[in-house]
Design a protein that fits this description.
The protein is mainly alpha-helical. The protein contains 13 helices and four strands.
Length: 358
Amino acid sequence: ANDPGFKNTDYWGKGIIPPNSKRFTIARVGWGELDDGSGGSGAAPSLSNRYARYYIELLKEARKVDPQAQVAGYAYANYWKAPTVELDLKGVMILYVPPVFFPMTEQDIAECNANWDGWRKLGARMVLRPNLTHAGANLPISYARPLAKIFSHAAANGMEATSFDSLLGAWSAQGPTLYTLIRMHQKPEMPVDEILDEYYSGFGPAKEGVKAYFEHWERHSNALDAREVTRFNGEEKGGGFKNYVRVAHRLFSPKDFAQARALLAAARRQAAGDERALRQVAYLELGLTDGELTTATRAAQAKLEKQDSPANKAEFTKAFQKMIAHRARMIASGDHPADIGYFSQREVGGSQWPHKTK
């Protein structure tokens, strides 16, 4: 590039990635973005105008070779927001990656939907490509309703395809949310309450007990404050898709799990005499216990990190081994309540838990 800003950075060609405070100062150099990167809060400037212009220029070049060419590009990171200038994006497909994550606020949802509309207004074809389903690890979080608000808006406003990142495999712990996502792909106009009722109905005579169980986790999830969770993420160096489990003990308490277990016990009583329903409730109990023991393991690890003592090390080892023994029972059940291999991999890389990897 001829822009002089590129001559003043060691980013190019050396595998060095400077911090945002330095990297985005280039945005001040005659490219149309006036924010120096601070935004009053350390936020990077929006580069959407720049990326949109690039997609247009790329399309022009492609159509010199093939008049029917189309261009696909992302709306991601600090260029996810809709451009603020009038551009013609016909022939450009935008893979829209809004920064929505669990837990999200109504403002987050509104901004997500408004910027979707902004890209589409400029003529872009639209693909919904969020990272939302990276959240939660194997823990019983619930975000079916916020997800439905985003999905239904996109579906009603030009969505041509989806690409959700990623399917982690918390089948038991996050069943209603995953079922909602599946059903909305089939019937995007279906109200979320109908979808959830359909899911709970699958548990036969245990329907009401299972509904009460998952509504407990929905209330718990809705009560989490997004700003507070962001603080937890920073303090625990976790909360991302690689290390989500590091905030488990900040999001869930032993009391939360005890209340949930009592609700599943009621569901089990409702299922009495129905072999299929009893097996389904047992499937949920396996996922609940996995989340509970995972959280207890992280709590013990956090205690060890604060004070490295033989007693704390023994407590962590005991909690970890108890979780491992339970996961062996999960696998033996044959019902696959969670993708144990995936979660164990993340616990090794993101939390340094001593899983045997060979």
